Amino acid sequence: xxxxxxxxxxxxxxxxxxxxxxxxxxxxxxxxxxxxxxxxxxxxxxxxxxxxxxxxxxxxxxxxxxxxxxxxxxxxxxxxxxxxxxxxxxxxxxxxxxxxxxxxxxxxxxxxxxxxxxxxxxxxxxxxxxxxxxxxxxxxxxxxxxxxxxxxxxxxxxxxxxxxxxxxxxxxxxxxxxxxxxxxxxxxxxxxxxxxxxxxxxxxxxxxxxxxxxxx
Length: 216
Fold this sequence. Notes:
Layout: H1 4-22, H2 36-43, E1 50-59, E2 68-74, E3 85-86, E4 89-91, H3 99-111, E5 119-123, E6 127-128, E7 133-142, E8 155-162, H4 163-166, E9 173-179, E10 182-191, E11 194-197, H5 198-213
Parallel strand pairs: 1-7
Antiparallel strand pairs: 1-4, 2-3, 2-8, 5-7, 6-7, 9-10, 10-11
């Protein structure tokens, strides 16, 4: 017997697969911040951005396993964004052949997700951050019940959030934070004790938005 959660999970997963089967995303639209002042700041930035990639690891929906996205809690010891919710990923390095290679390598280093366990199905557009990074999100499918090994220097905790929740545009609420002495609009989503906000929320909201728009 299937419940509503099963149906919602299956629908969210199938919608995601359908979107990426139609959109190979060779040149996807960029991801914008909820605050136009931040977008304006980034377009006028005089210096080049440092390239980085993150992986959106999505567990396959199974009859007894609802689809989820793997997320991390950043270590309190990190200089940038300590304690915040993040997708696994990091800066491009010389050994990386492309943005996908960066996302897979960094995910293996951060959470012990073997590159061979990821089926990359697409990518999203870039997100320019005030911190000086240009992030490319890569979307990959993984099996449920994989075991992860967090890098203790970077990752305090690894958890799973339901795909159906993260793909629901109504899950995201506007809030504000102060950056550069000015109040800026950001998105946030609450899942259990985890507050997902900032760049991670912007990326996941964009994913939900492009998939939802593709259904109309």
